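Q: I have 236 residues here and want to know how they pack in 3D. Can you give me a structure?
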Amino acid sequence: MHFKPVLQPAVLLRRYKRFLADVQLPNGSQITMHCPNTGAMTGCSDPGSNVWYSSSDNPKRKYVHTLEIVEDAQGHLIGINSALANRLVEEWLAQGKLPALSGYTIVQREVAIPGGSGRFDFRLSSDSKPHCYVEVKSMTLHVGNGFGQFPDAPSKRATRHIEALQNCVTEGNRAVLLYCVQHSGILRAGVATEIDPVYSKAVRHARAAGVEILAYAADIKVDGFEFLRQLKFAPS
């Protein structure tokens, strides 16, 4: 996935009201842009951080610029646009870079959760296999020593999703929770038990019931994101 037009650099002044960020441009001027991340963005929103942003030519947008990448104090690049996780996974599926999810002929996005409310990110289908439901979560929380965790804030929505995945397994389907790691410093993935113990418990129960947990890292670069590698999932 490549950014077109190319991302532009700035310095982060503050992130606020969840969806807004003020930045300073190289010429010294300041602008407000959209911040596409609903989480706490711990370690990803420190004032003074180098950032890169995209621009839209849509005249209906109130904020034409979007924050995309933040560089943390250790020099790691972080993709903070959580919506890009689904686009990356869809691209990797099409390119055959996720062998654990190979062998399916149809990939559908945003499918209704069977017997429940809301939607899963993907349903993979094949004439010879049960449906495979996939829920994607973007991981950006780095807690040190290369260890990444999800979520970075309590998330009832994430808990509902993992419980719904478990129900899919009970009904005879395959279910996968896939962490898309958008942080160059994260080398292994886990669950943030201290931040959201309810979610952590739900993940443990779902995994024991047959829900598969996968983690894949993106190679974060200013000109675009590519597939990097599968990471070990180490429950905390």
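Q: Anything worth noting?
A: The CA atoms of residues 169 and 175 lie 6 Å apart. The chain has three helices and 15 strands.
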